[in-house]
Design a protein that fits this description.
OB fold (Dihydrolipoamide Acetyltransferase, E2P); Dihydrolipoamide Transferase; 4 domains; 14 helices
C-alpha cells in the first residue's frame, strides 16, 4: 500500500513552494512523523513530516517548485519491498565473490535535465560531485545544478559507471542530456569484495555519510565555493551533521586565514589588483524568496494608490523614561525596554481611533478589523520577513518586548512557522537600525498602511521661542489612498506622534 505525501496548505495567498533539501534519500526507511525535507515558501521555511512509516520514494527533487496539493513523495507502507531487497543484496554478493567485480548489464541509463520548476527553461551545471568513470550508486548525489530560482542536487538514476556528457559551467535546456550511467549489477558485492582496494572502498563507505554528515546544502555550497572554503573544514549544525547556509556564513571569517598561512603573497596580489582599478563583475542567482518578494513589491506599486506622509517625533521623553526605568524593567521582566514597545502601543491606540488604517480591501468590500495584529519587519539571512504580533492592543510593554525578541530570534534562525508569518493588519518597519534617515516604505499587501521608523538624530529645534538640541526621528506612513483619505492618514500619524512625545498618555489612555 502506498501513501502519497502532498504539499500541504501552508498559509493564505501561498500557492507554491520550493523543495529546499531532503533529509532522507530515495529508498530510505522512514518512520511516522519523521522529518523528510524542508519546503520553502516566499514567507518561511518549514519541515515536511512523514505521514506513514515505510519506504520513501521521492517524486520532487531539491529546487523543484510545486503547487499546493502536488505530490512530493510516496511512502510504500508494505514491508514486502524491503524484505525482497535484502536477499537480493546477498545473492549478488555470493555470485560476485568469485568474479570480484560488479557485473555489467549492457544497459546505459541516459540522465536528462529534469523539470525543476514553473517557467524555467534552462539550467547551468554548477559542478560535478563525481568524476567521469566513477562507480555511483542509485540516488547518490553526482552533481549540482543552478536554475534562476534555486540550486539543487542531481541524484544518480541507476547504479553503475558514470560517464559525463555535459561539462561544468555548461547551460542545458530542460530535457537535455547531462550524463550517462553504464548500469551494473551487484553493487553490494562491489563494495564488499573490493574493500581491500582503494577506489570503491573510499567512495562507497563515505558516500552514505557524506549525504548528510559533512555535506553542504546547495545554498551553503555556493557560499563556501565563493569563499574558497573546503566543506571538510566546516562543522555542520544541521540534521545528521549537514552543513547549513548559516554554517557557511559563519565560516566566512575563517576563509582568509587558510590562504594567508599557505601563501601570504596571493591575497596581497589580489588586493593590489582591486586597488589598481579592476573592473571585475560578479553575478549571483536570485533566491526563490527574493524573486517572489520582488514580484509582490512591484505588484503593490502597480495595484495600489500608494502615498506617503511624513512627520517628526521628539524622542527625548521616551529616552528619558527608558533611562530611568530600563534597569528595573529588565530586572523584573527579564527583557530590555526598547523603542518597539512604545511604537507598537502608540500604533494600536491610533489604529482603534482611525479604523480605516487598520482595514483592507477584499474585492469590492472593505474589511475592518477590531483587533491589531502588528507585523514587524525583520532582516533575516534569507531576506526580509514579517512575523506578526497577535492582538497587540491587549498586550503590556513587557509582553510586546518578549514577543519581539522571540519572533526576531526565530526569524534570524530561519525557524519561523507559517502561522507566525501569515495575517497582520498593520506593519512597522525600522530602517533606523541601518542608519536610514528618511524613506517611503512599501505597503505589505493586503494591508493598507505601513509605518516606517528611522534613525534618531540630534537636531536644533525651536521650542517655545528657544533653540534646543533634541533627539529627533522622522516617521513615515505609506498608505493606500483607495481606502485611506488624506485626513485619516495625517491624523493617524499626528496621533502616533502625540502618544510618543507624551508617553504618559499610553498609561492613562488619553
Amino acid at each position: 500500500m502506498s501513501k502519497e505525501i502532498k504539499v500541504p496548505a501552508v498559509g493564505e495567498s501561498i500557492s507554491e513552494v520550493t523543495v529546499g533539501q531532503w533529509f532522507k534519500k530515495d529508498g530510505d526507511q522512514v518512520e511516522m512523523d519523521e522529518v523528510l525535507c524542508e519546503l520553502e515558501s516566499d514567507k518561511a521555511t518549514f519541515e515536511l513530516p512523514a505521514e506513514a512509516a515505510g519506504t520513501l520514494r521521492i517524486k520532487a527533487q531539491e529546487g523543484d517548485t510545486l503547487e499546493i496539493g502536488a505530490v512530493i513523495c510516496v511512502i510504500e507502507e508494505s514491508t514486502s519491498g524491503v524484505s525482497s531487497e535484502r536477499p537480493s543484496s546477498n545473492a549478488p554478493a555470493e555470485a560476485s565473490s568469485s568474479s570480484a567485480s560488479p557485473k555489467a548489464t549492457g544497459e546505459v541509463k541516459e540522465m536528462v535535465v529534469p523539470t525543476v520548476g514553473e517557467s524555467i527553461t534552462e539550467v547551468t551545471l554548477a559542478n560535478w560531485l563525481k568524476a567521469d568513470g566513477d562507480f555511483v550508486e542509485l540516488d547518490e548525489i553526482i552533481a549540482e545544478v543552478d536554475s534562476d530560482k534555486a540550486t539543487f542536487e542531481l541524484p544518480a538514476e541507476a547504479t553503475g559507471i558514470l560517464r559525463h556528457v555535459a561539462q561544468e559551467g555548461e547551460t542545458l535546456e530542460i530535457g537535455g542530456l547531462i550524463c550517462k550511467i553504464e548500469v551494473m549489477e551487484g553493487k553490494p558485492a562491489a563494495a564488499s569484495s573490493e574493500a581491500p582496494s582503494s577506489t570503491p572502498a573510499s567512495t562507497s563507505a563515505p558516500s552514505k555519510e557524506s549525504y548528510a554528515s559533512g555535506h553542504a546544502s546547495p545554498a551553503a555550497s555556493k557560499i563556501l565555493a565563493e569563499k574558497g572554503i573546503n566543506p571538510e573544514e566546516v562543522k555542520g549544525s544541521g540534521k545528521d551533521g549537514r552543513i547549513t547556509k548559516e554554517d557557511a556564513q559563519a565560516a566566512q571569517k575563517q576563509a582568509p586565514v587558510a590562504p594567508k598561512q599557505e601563501n601570504k603573497e596571493e591575497p596581497v596580489a589580489q588586493s593590489a589588483v582591486r586597488v589598481a582599478g579592476s573592473r571585475d563583475e560578479k553575478r549571483e542567482k536570485m533566491s526563490s524568496l527574493r524573486r517572489t518578494v520582488s514580484r509582490r513589491l512591484v505588484a503593490v506599486k502597480n495595484e495600489t494608490a500608494m502615498l506617503t506622509t511624513f512627520n517628526e517625533v521628539n524622542m527625548k521623553p521616551i529616552m528619558d523614561l527608558r533611562s530611568k526605568y530600563k534597569d528595573l524593567f529588565k530586572e523584573k521582566h527579564g527583557v530590555g525596554l526598547g523603542f518597539m514597545s512604545f511604537f507598537t502601543k502608540a500604533v494600536c491606540v491610533a489604529l482603534q481611533e482611525w479604523p480605516a488604517v487598520n482595514a483592507k480591501i477584499d474585492g469590492n468590500e472593505i474589511v475592518y478589523h477590531d483587533y491589531c495584529d502588528i507585523s514587524i519587519a525583520v532582516s533575516a539571512p534569507k531576506g526580509l520577513v514579517v512575523p506578526v504580533i497577535r492582538n497587540a492592543e491587549g498586550m503590556s510593554f513587557d509582553q510586546i518586548e518578549k514577543e519581539v525578541v522571540r519572533l526576531a530570534t526565530k526569524a534570524r534562525d530561519n525557524k519561523l512557522s507559517i502561522e507566525e508569518m501569515t495575517g497582520g493588519t498593520f506593519t512597522i518597519t525600522n530602517g533606523g537600525v541601518f542608519g536610514s534617515m528618511m524613506s517611503t516604505p512599501i505597503i505589505n499587501a493586503p494591508q493598507s498602511a505601513i509605518l516606517g521608523m528611522h534613525n534618531i538624530v540630534q537636531r536644533p529645534m525651536a521650542v517655545n521661542g528657544e533653540v534646543k538640541i533634541l533627539p529627533m526621528m522622522y516617521v513615515a506612513l505609506s498608505y493606500d489612498h483607495r481606502i485611506i483619505d488624506g485626513r485619516e492618514s495625517v491624523s493617524f500619524l499626528v496621533r502616533v506622534k502625540q502618544l510618543l512625545e507624551e508617553p504618559e498618555r499610553l498609561l492613562f489612555g488619553v
